[in-house]
């Protein structure tokens, strides 16, 4: 049968078992000795981070400019989220396992405890041959502020693809990094992007040269382990003319009573006819049912369809984090370029999410599609915020937006803020929005056919998310379904 | 003949309003019973109480099914034990394919009964054959459950579910309403195909025309929350002619 996620049966062990075993299964702490700098943020800290990474002068300059800009900026307050003031002086901006100090050359040299962490999370760090028919996935794993390991580097290099930690790219491919870093998200773009540009630690770098289709899926797993530590990941993906890549990102963190900040910047550049597919399954620790703890996920993700007929597609499944503030966007600069945004966001208990996208149509006959599915349960609060902007030269631009909210219970909320700015009269913009509740009659219908309540809820929710899940690579679709199921535990009854 | 269902002095309310007011009904295995009666009499309420809808509260009386008290069983357990209700208004579940729904339902029931679940191949064969029986377009299987189905298609889909799940007690609430003439025949054939000495059927209907195809053993009139008259197949024809007025006066 086709890889249709909603045809995947509800796991046999049943929700009860899943809930008991899983809850937030990624909530453990790895006991490794870390080298961390004292909490606080200053120009000295920025210099220290840059020095630790032995960065060239131009990058230090980039960081310092960003830092100075950040000092002059104010925290944004327009999002539909509420949280206590963040004390930026209480955060540690650099933490790395000591064992990483002299950069292990291969997986064999990596601290087994770190390897074990990723095994526990179900992330394969061995380059074992997978079963027939299953595609290999190359993985880069980032632990607090450093990249721990990247697999399949050689195989990728043979194809001409560069996939490595961004700090390594700064050393090995400075001309590429210098050319593209900050070219999509300028250092002063917004408050959190400026902060990230000043203190970013690690993240992935991908470069796919002209005409190359990346031979396997690439993925990065981000893990925050240390207490009171912020993670400031920086990811940069470039596809030259006619190149293609599919990239996946996963995130987890230990279960803690404090809030931790994750402020990432992701930049994508697609040249002529290039295609980048970027998928995220975000499962940061969401806090407990009373809203204690959890990650503040304040992220700037933007793709630049710089070339003709290029395509950038964002797919995100956001189930974690106490607060999510995230708008993966596309700048449709090249004529005939295509931008897509498929999103499932789930907020349960006291989680808050303000998420959506921006589609900026600059080129002619550019096309964008937005499909946003918001699910709120418990006291979860959720906003979809989307901007479709069509500039003067964008003859024949088209956008279709589908924005649906599903409410479970009556304490939660869903809000939609669609903005459009149309400066070219030939543009065709369609917007559809629905809000529905999981109705009691739907639940009863399922139960009357023998399907238990929890399974029925997860089936109905998965049906609601189908249009997004079908955009995910198969393994991620399964993972996403399981996550939704676990995240919704106790949402009814 | 063994008694499959035995309802005694059933009182049930919904939203604080008493709808069933001392209903008695006994159904033997192998029988087909028709329940007719005026709008709002409580026919759908009875069906939902049997299926285990929680917003319908039984305040007095008992329902025994296969000799055991139904009160202890949840809706999903009742389904697994063979109670099937065909909905008067089947519900839409967008994005969940009919196929996936049927498989989840069948396997959930099998699991509850301690039977092995069917794998994808066996299940496909199981369903395909029945889709053909219902003269349905197989493409319907990949559409969302009842999503955008016409009124008649929804009813036909209910009978497909029944054929797939092979229940023991079928409570079909106005499955004949909204069917065209050919579809009525197909649905009736589906119901007849399920008739067996171990099974029983309760047909809730307003019209004689279904009963022309599915011969009932007993016909009941449900009015104001009680069975006010029972008789043979001729009672249905009498009702068709006279309406319910004469009975309500009597009751
Ligand atoms: N949720 C509810 N809240 C209030 N009243 C209800 C509810 N459900 C049913 N009722 C009432 O209970 C009574 C019986 O309804 P029921 O649906 O059982 O009738 P019926 O015999 O099936 O009628 P019909 O032939 O029209 O289908 C009606 O008066 C109806 O309005
Ligand atoms: Mg009715």
Secondary structure tally: strands of chain A: 23
Strand arrangement across the biggest beta sheet of chain B: 6-9-10-3-11-12
Structural class label of chain B = alpha/beta
Largest sheet of chain B: 6 strands, mixed
- CA radius of gyration of chain A: 22 Å
Task: Label the overall shape of chain B.
Answer: globular
Strand content of chain B: 25-35%
Give the termini distance of chain B in whole angstroms.
31 Å
State the distance separating the first and last CA atoms of chain A: 34 Å
Helix content of chain A: 10-25%
Helix and strand composition category of chain A: alpha/beta
What series of H and E elements makes up the topology of chain B?
EEEHEEHEEHHEHEHEHEEHH
Helix and strand arrangement:
The complex is a heterodimer of chains A (493) and B (251).
Chain A: H1 14-22, E1 34-36, H2 43-52, H3 57-71, E2 95-97, H4 112-120, E3 137-143, E4 146-150, H5 153-158, E5 162-165, H6 166-172, H7 174-180, H8 191-199, E6 204-208, E7 217-223, E8 234-239, E9 244-252, E10 259-262, E11 265-270, E12 275-282, E13 294-305, E14 311-318, E15 323-326, E16 329-332, E17 338-347, E18 352-361, E19 367-377, E20 381-390, E21 398-408, E22 413-422, E23 428-437, H9 440-448, H10 453-469, H11 474-487
Parallel strand pairs in A: 3-7, 6-8, 7-9, 8-11, 9-12, 10-13, 11-13, 12-14, 13-15, 13-16, 14-17, 15-18, 16-18, 17-19, 18-20, 19-21, 20-22, 21-23
Antiparallel strand pairs in A: 1-2, 3-4, 5-6
Chain B: E1 3-14, E2 17-28, E3 32-36, H1 43-51, E4 56-65, E5 68-69, H2 75-80, E6 83-86, E7 93-97, H3 98-112, H4 120-133, E8 144-145, H5 151-165, E9 169-173, H6 181-194, E10 200-204, H7 208-213, E11 218-223, E12 226-231, H8 233-242, H9 245-250
Parallel strand pairs in B: 3-10, 3-11, 6-9, 9-10
Antiparallel strand pairs in B: 1-2, 1-4, 4-5, 7-8, 11-12
Bound molecules: adenosine-5'-triphosphate and magnesium ion.
Magnesium ion is lined by residues 43-44, 88, 173-174 of chain B.
């Amino acid at each position: 049968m086709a890889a249709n996620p909603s045809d995947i049966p509800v796991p046999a062990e049943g929700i009860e078992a899943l809930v008991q075993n899983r809850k937030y299964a990624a909530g453990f702490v790895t006991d490794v000795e870390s080298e961390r700098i004292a909490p606080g943020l200053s120009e000295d800290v920025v210099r220290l981070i840059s020095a630790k990474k032995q960065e060239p002068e131009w990058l230090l300059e980039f960081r310092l400019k960003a830092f100075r800009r950040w000092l002059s900026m104010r925290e944004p307050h327009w999002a539909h989220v509420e949280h206590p003031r963040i004390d930026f002086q209480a955060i540690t901006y650099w933490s790395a396992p000591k064992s990483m100090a002299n950069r292990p050359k291969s997986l064999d040299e990596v601290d087994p405890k770190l390897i074990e962490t990723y095994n526990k999370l179900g992330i394969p760090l061995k380059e074992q041959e997978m079963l027939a028919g299953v595609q290999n996935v190359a993985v880069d794993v980032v632990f607090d502020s450093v990249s721990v390991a990247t697999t399949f580097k050689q195989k990728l290099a043979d194809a001409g693809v560069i996939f490595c930690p961004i700090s390594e790219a700064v050393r090995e491919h400075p001309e590429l990094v210098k050319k593209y870093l900050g070219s999509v998200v300028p250092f002063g773009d917004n408050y959190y992007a400026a902060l990230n540009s000043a203190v970013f630690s690690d993240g992935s770098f991908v470069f796919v040269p002209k005409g190359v289709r990346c031979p396997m899926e690439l993925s990065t797993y981000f893990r925050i382990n240390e207490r009171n530590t912020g993670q400031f990941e920086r990811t940069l993906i470039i596809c030259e003319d006619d190149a293609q890549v599919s990239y996946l990102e996963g995130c987890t963190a230990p279960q803690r009573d404090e809030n931790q900040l994750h402020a990432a910047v992701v930049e994508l550049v697609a040249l002529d006819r290039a295609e980048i597919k970027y998928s995220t399954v975000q499962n940061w620790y969401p806090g407990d049912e009373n809203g204690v703890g959890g990650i503040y996920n304040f992220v700037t993700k933007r793709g630049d369809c710089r070339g003709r007929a290029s395509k950038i597609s964002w797919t995100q499944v956001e189930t974690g984090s106490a607060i999510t503030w995230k708008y993966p966007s596309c700048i449709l600069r090249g004529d005939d370029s295509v931008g897509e945004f498929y999103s499932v966001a789930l907020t349960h208990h006291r989680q808050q999410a303000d998420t959506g996208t921006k589609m900026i149509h600059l080129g002619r006959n550019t096309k964008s599609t937005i499909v946003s599915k918001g699910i709120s349960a418990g006291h979860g609060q959720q906003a979809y915020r989307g901007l479709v902007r069509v500039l003067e030269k964008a003859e024949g631009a088209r956008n279709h937006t589908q924005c649906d909210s599903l409410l479970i219970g009556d304490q939660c909320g869903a809000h939609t803020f669609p903005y459009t700015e149309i400066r070219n009269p030939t543009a065709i913009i369609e917007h559809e929005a629905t809000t529905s509740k999981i109705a009691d009659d739907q639940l009863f219908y399922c139960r009357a056919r023998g399907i238990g309540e929890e399974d029925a809820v997860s089936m109905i929710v998965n049906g609601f998310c189908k249009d997004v899940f079908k955009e995910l690579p198969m393994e991620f679709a399964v993972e996403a379904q399981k996550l939704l199921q676990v995240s919704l535990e106790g949402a009814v009854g | 003949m063994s008694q499959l269902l035995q309802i005694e002095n059933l009182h049930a309310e919904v939203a604080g309003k008493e709808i069933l007011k001392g209903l008695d009904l006994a159904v033997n295995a192998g029988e087909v019973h028709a329940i007719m009666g005026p709008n709002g009499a409580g026919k759908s309420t009875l069906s939902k109480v049997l299926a285990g809808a929680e917003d319908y509260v039984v305040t007095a009386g008992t329902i025994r099914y296969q000799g055991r008290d139904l009160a202890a069983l949840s809706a999903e357990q009742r389904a697994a034990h063979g109670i099937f209700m065909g909905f008067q208004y089947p519900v839409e579940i967008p994005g969940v394919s009919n196929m996936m729904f049927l498989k989840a339902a069948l396997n959930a029931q099998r699991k509850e009964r301690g039977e092995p679940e069917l794998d994808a191949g066996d299940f496909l064969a199981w369903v395909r054959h029945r889709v053909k029986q219902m003269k349905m377009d197989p493409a319907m299987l990949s559409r969302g459950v009842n999503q955008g189905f016409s009124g008649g298609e929804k009813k036909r889909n209910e009978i497909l579910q029944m054929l797939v799940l092979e229940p023991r007690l079928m409570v079909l609430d106005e499955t004949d309403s909204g069917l065209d003439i050919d579809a009525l025949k197909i649905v009736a054939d589906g119901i007849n195909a399920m008739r067996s000495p171990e099974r029983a059927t309760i047909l809730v209907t307003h019209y004689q025309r279904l009963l022309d195809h599915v011969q009932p053993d007993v016909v009941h009139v449900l009015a104001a929350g009680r069975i006010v008259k029972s008789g043979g197949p001729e009672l249905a024809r009498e009702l068709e002619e006279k309406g319910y007025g004469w009975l309500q006066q009597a009751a």
